[in-house]
Amino acid sequence: MKKLKRVLRVLVPILLAVIIGSYLFINSLKPDYNGEKILPGLESQVTVFYDTYGIPHIYAENEKDAFRALGYAHAQDRLWQMELLRRVAKGGLSEVFGKDLLETDKFFLSLGISDYSARTVSKLDVDSEMVTISNAYLDGINEFIKEGPTPVEFYLTGLEKEPFSLEDIYNATGYMAFSFAMAHKTDPLLTNIRNQWGDEYINDLAIDSDTSTVWINNYKRPNSDSIDINIIGGINRALNKLPIPQFIGSNSWVLAPGKTKNGKVILANDPHVGFAQPSVWYEAHMSTPKYEKYGYHFAGIPFPVLAHDRNLAFGLTMFENDDIDFYFEETHPSDSTKYKTEAGWKDYEMVSKKIKVKDSGDVTFTYKKTRHGPVLNNIAKQIKGERPIAMSWIYTQVENEIIDGLYGMGHAENISEFVLELPKVHAPGLNVMYGDASGNVAWWATAKLYQMPDSVSTKFVLDGTTGKEERLGYLDFSENPSAINPPWNYVYSANNQPDSVSGRLYPGYYLPENRAQRIVQLLDSKNDWDKESASEMILDVTSTVNPALVTELIKLLDITNLSEEQLVQLDALRNWNGEYTLENTNAVLYHRSEYYILKNTFEDELGEEQFNQFLSTHLLKRHIAKGTSMKSGKWWDNIHTKNKIETRDDIVLKSFADAWHSIINDFGEDSSQWTWDRVHTLEHEHPIGQVPSLRKFFNVGPFPVTGTKEVINNMAFPYDSTGFYRVNSGPSTRRIIDFSDVENSISILPTGQSGNPFSKHYKDQAELFVNGEFRKMMMNRAEIESSAESVLIFTKE
Question: At the top level of its lineage, which domain of life is listed (predicted)?
Answer without folding.
Answer: Bacteria
